[in-house]
Amino acid sequence: MHSASEPATGFRPHRVVVLALDGLLPFELGIPHRIFGRPTDAEGRHLYEVVTCSVRPPGPVETDADFAIGVRHGPEALATADTVVVPASYELGPVHEEGVLTPELAAALAHIRPGTRLTAICTGGYVLAAAGYLDGRPAATHWADADRFQRLFPRVRVDPDVLFIDDGDVLTSAGVAAGIDLCLHMVRRDHGTAVANDVARRTVVPPHRDGGQAQYIHRPLPEPQLATTTAARAWALGRLHEPIQLRDMAEQEAMSVRTFTRRFREETGVSPGQWLTQQRVERARHLLESTGLSVDRIARDAGFGTAQSMRQHLQTALGVTPTAYRRTFRTGDLGPAAVGS
């Protein structure tokens, strides 16, 4: 389902169909096109094909702004999708008010083939929930809407704090920038960190924010007179291969451990320990993709110490072993990979 090519029949880009609903937010509608429209393979071929469809025949779709957009595809396009993305809308009617699909929307969703990957950005999750796709599953939505979402769909396990949730074939996110994080995560899942980081660089956004990061940070910008934890993070990134204690990071900012920990979470949404693990996983992924180093050597260079420790962390974060990850995403002619112990 997620492969961008079919070896038996030649190259075929992964088809992403974006469902444009009345009252949509233009920014969030544009996220899938911006992120999935960028990745290319070594031959310059686009890895994804992105099309937009409506629940009606081709024509105008109203937005929440003072303009409409012209959509060239009707709901039949959903039958061709490898991935369906439902961006946020402010005019979901009975979907938002009662948790039920309109006949028009139900007929459109009936085109989706079994096994298609489903994705919702912000209130797009109401559509997936009303269709039953989220029953018994964890789901994310905008923090301000989480309580209402949970009341309307009691069978859904709503997490009000995280940026996005990847539940395999169904993925959901909070609003706006979290939709970018989710789409980058999907590119990373499909094609590895090198491709996702290139897309992030071209889009001028952070290459990776973990899905479990808090979506609402009470003080996103520190008060001018207060020190930040930026220097400590830069210091840690330069020595991920070394043992790093919390007190070591706090000393870089001349703070007590308690103050540093509180300030760090306020600025990043995660604890210093969680952040370090995220950075080490990202370092390991990069080395597995781009080098022929052994698993033992990568474990040391990424700061996990042992191959067993790295396996455990990658299994927790990615659901795969280092060897399986390398087999899937290794790029270029690097010679035989040294698997190690």
Order of helices and strands: EEEHEEEEHHEHEHEEEHHHHHHHHH
Shape: globular
Biggest sheet: strand arrangement: 4-3-7-8-12-11
Query: How large is the radius of gyration?
Result: 21 Å
Fraction of residues in helix: 25-40%
Oligomer designation: single chain
Q: Would you tell me the structural class of the helices and strands?
A: alpha/beta
The profile of the biggest β sheet is: 6 strands, mixed
Q: Report the total helices.
A: 14
Summarize the structure in words.
- By secondary structure, the chain is of the alpha/beta class.
- It has helices at 26-36, 94-97, 103-109, 124-130, 146-152, 177-191, 193-203, 230-237, 246-252, 257-268, 272-290, 295-301, 307-318, 322-329, and strands at 5-6, 10-11, 14-19, 48-53, 59-62, 68-71, 83-86, 117-121, 138-140, 157-159, 164-166, 170-173.
- A 6-stranded mixed β-sheet has the order 4-3-7-8-12-11, with helices on both faces.
